[in-house]
Design a protein that fits this description.
Elements: E1 2-5, E2 11-12, E3 15-16, H1 22-30, E4 33-39, E5 46-51, H2 52-60, E6 66-70, E7 73-84, E8 91-98, E9 104-114, H3 118-121, E10 125-127, E11 132-138, E12 145-149, E13 158-160, E14 169-171, E15 178-183, H4 186-191, H5 197-219
Parallel strand pairs: 2-6, 4-8, 9-12
Antiparallel strand pairs: 1-12, 3-5, 4-5, 6-7, 7-8, 9-11, 10-15, 11-14, 13-15
């Protein structure tokens, strides 16, 4: 039901940070640079700078685990925290957390619906209330996304968290949570009115009696 989509890891381009303090930080940001920290277990944190453009490229890559070279050694890192400017929406600080590929980690990944549902072809509407899930897996098995095949869904069908299984990761979501479903469009539901046949016959009978009475009155 679910597939893990992975690709070559994005390489973080970092430079050692040499100046600290409020003035130095402001100067960095004016020059399009962002202070970043790298943490890993009990190690001392590393302080770097990266260009904001490169950081945005990293985030837009939708990868979950990045490569980063520290002291000549290639390591792995995941995003721990991102701080955004409240007005300009620029990245003003970012923290990365070191990841060992054999460690079991929990990390959010996007959910991607794949295929054209049968129910949509018949007039239904695909709904996807869940666009991101937290998965538990080894660092080396972290997927860039969880792909869910929706092509066989008919109107009224749904895929729940319990239906999404994988040999390499576990989704940390209650089994009964709906991830995707195909429903009748709301406007169509609103225009569909059930008619009670007995009530319709009663109204027809009343209408006939009214017609007879009107006819009698007219004859008189």
């Amino acid at each position: 039901m679910a597939q893990a989509k992975t690709k070559e890891r994005f390489e973080l381009q970092v430079e050692q940070r040499s100046e600290f303090g409020r003035k130095a930080t402001k100067a960095l940001r004016r020059n399009g640079l962002v202070p970043v920290n790298f943490y890993s277990g009990g190690e001392t944190a590393y302080s770097f700078v990266m260009t904001e453009t490169h950081l945005r490229d990293a985030l837009h890559s939708r990868e979950q685990i990045f490569n980063i070279t520290i002291d000549g050694e290639q390591r792995r890192a995941m995003v721990k925290d991102v701080q955004w400017h409240p007005v300009t929406d620029k990245i003003i600080h970012m923290d990365f957390l070191g990841v060992r590929l054999r460690d079991i980690i929990e990390i959010p990944v996007p959910v991607v619906a794949v295929g054209s549902p049968i129910g949509v072809q018949e007039g239904g509407l695909l709904q996807q209330p869940i666009h991101e899930v937290v998965v538990r897996c080894k660092g080396e098995d972290v997927p860039d996304s969880v792909e869910i095949d929706v092509s066989e869904l008919n109107i009224g069908d749904a895929i729940h968290a319990a239906d999404v299984t994988s040999d390499t990761f576990e989704i940390l979501l209650a089994d009964d949570i709906t991830i995707v479903s195909v429903v009748i469009p709301q406007k169509l539901e609103e225009t569909t009115v059930e008619v009670d046949e007995d009530e319709l016959e009663f109204e027809d009978e009343e209408g006939s009696e009214d017609s007879e009475d009107t006819k009698k009155d007219g004859d008189e």
